[in-house]
Design brief:
Structural class: mainly alpha
């Protein structure tokens, strides 16, 4: 076995995939762990809540604005090298967050941390083909989806424990040793991917390739729908069903738990059935879940809501694993970074659209911006309108992907042996 073959064999191990998974967990933790600290920050720093929210917003804005540039840097200087740089940046920024003497310094450090997270999220996906064998790419993509959901779900609970023991500074400083561990793992188990320069015409094609845009737009629509559940769910559970804060929180964990459990099985289905079929299956479940959120809670109340979430969430994981696999399989090695960045950009734009756009639809359907004082029936009306629109978005995404499926006839995305 020659040197390059040996290096490739060593790279494509479970440990290599685990290194990428840990990168994804760190970036997701960075997203959600700060939310639980906002009341404490507001109290400790004697600052109004609307200003403290910039601690979360700065991270998300920096992450969203950085992903495509980060992907291009990965293609230019090497995916592994830039992932290591991102881990170092994330660790430094986390340390600066924990040591920040003022809100302004904390917000600046959080923005820097968001840039570091962009390296982690974007390049982890771009490196999957170098970390996993071809017949397990879907499984690896599913694992990254699981780890993203796990990091998002763990953030509030882990943050709450750390704040009670160390104060708000501890939620940021705790990320430093995990970043160092991930840095060592990536350095040890992933090969030096180096640069893969491509001809100018090829470098120009990643925004321009006709088959890419439909899948990116579908990714945006799916992210918007999932964000809508996080925006609308607490209002429906708390104000329409009358659940307390603790009970609402418990019910809201059902979706993330299902997402964690369904990520790897979704990836296995991608490897077994092929990405195009699983994309359509996932979108079908998303359409069904959105329609179920319109109908079932009106009949069965809380149980109807839970059944609808149990339909919707696995559809999201099926779509994510398959869509990411299909997009990255269609991309030359020299473009994997920037295309992974585009995936992240459209996903984040979808989250913003879900929070703002579908959130506005919810308020319009409820007939008031003061949702806390709305009647239960108004909350229900708002939720029905929101998820009717979400179902339409999912149906539109399905049409886009079906149109793309005709182009896939010449591409080998079938089941792997």
């Amino acid at each position: 076995m020659n040197h390059s073959a040996t290096r490739d064999h060593c790279a494509k191990t479970p440990l290599a995939v685990a290194a990428l998974a840990l990168s994804m967990v760190l970036a997701s933790l960075g997203t959600s762990i700060a939310n639980i600290a906002l009341p404490t920050l507001s109290s400790d720093l004697a600052i109004p809540f609307y200003r403290v929210q910039w601690v979360v917003t700065a991270y998300l804005v920096a992450l969203t604005l950085s992903v495509v540039v980060v992907g291009r840097l990965g293609d230019r200087f090497g995916l592994k090298k830039m992932l290591l740089f991102g881990l170092g940046l994330f660790a430094l920024a986390s340390c600066l967050c924990g040591l920040a003497p003022s809100l302004r310094a904390l917000v600046a450090a959080r923005a820097l941390q968001g840039v570091g997270a962009a390296f982690l999220m974007t390049l982890a996906i771009a490196l999957v083909h170098e970390a996993a064998p071809e017949n397990r790419i879907g499984r690896a993509m599913g694992l990254l989806g699981t780890m993203s959901a796990l990091g998002t779900a763990l953030g509030p609970s882990l943050g709450g424990v750390l704040i009670s023991v160390t104060g708000w500074q501890g939620i940021f400083l705790a990320l430093v040793p995990f970043s160092a561990l991930c840095f060592a793992l990536v350095y040890r188990v992933l090969p030096d991917s180096g640069r893969a320069p491509a001809p100018a015409a090829l470098r120009m094609s990643a925004l321009l390739r006709p088959g890419l845009l439909p899948r990116l737009v579908a990714n945006l629509c799916v992210a918007a729908t999932m964000m809508a559940t996080l925006v609308v769910g607490p209002f429906y559970l708390g104000f329409a069903l009358g659940l307390g804060t603790a009970a609402t929180g418990i019910v809201m964990t059902v979706g993330p738990v299902i997402s964690i459990a369904s990520g790897v099985p979704s990836g296995r289905l991608v490897d077994a059935w092929g990405a195009p079929r699983v994309i359509l299956a996932g979108l079908g479940a998303l359409v069904s879940g959105a329609v179920a959120l319109v109908l079932l809670p009106m009949v069965w109340g809380l149980w109807g809501y839970l059944v609808a979430i149990a339909i919707l969430t696995p559809g999201y994981q099926l779509f994510q694993a398959a869509n990411n696999t299909a997009i990255m399989a269609d991309v030359a090695q020299a473009e994997r970074g920037v295309v992974s960045g585009l995936l992240g950009l459209f996903r984040n734009l979808g989250l913003v659209a879900g929070a703002s756009g579908l959130g506005a639809v919810f308020a319009f359907g409820a007939g008031t911006d003061v949702l806390e004082s709305a009647a239960p029936s108004a909350i229900v009306d708002g939720m029905q309108m929101t998820f009717l629109l979400a179902a339409a978005l999912m149906a539109g995404a399905t049409c886009l992907v079906r149109a793309r499926a005709g182009d896939d006839a010449t591409v080998k995305f079938g089941p792997n042996p």
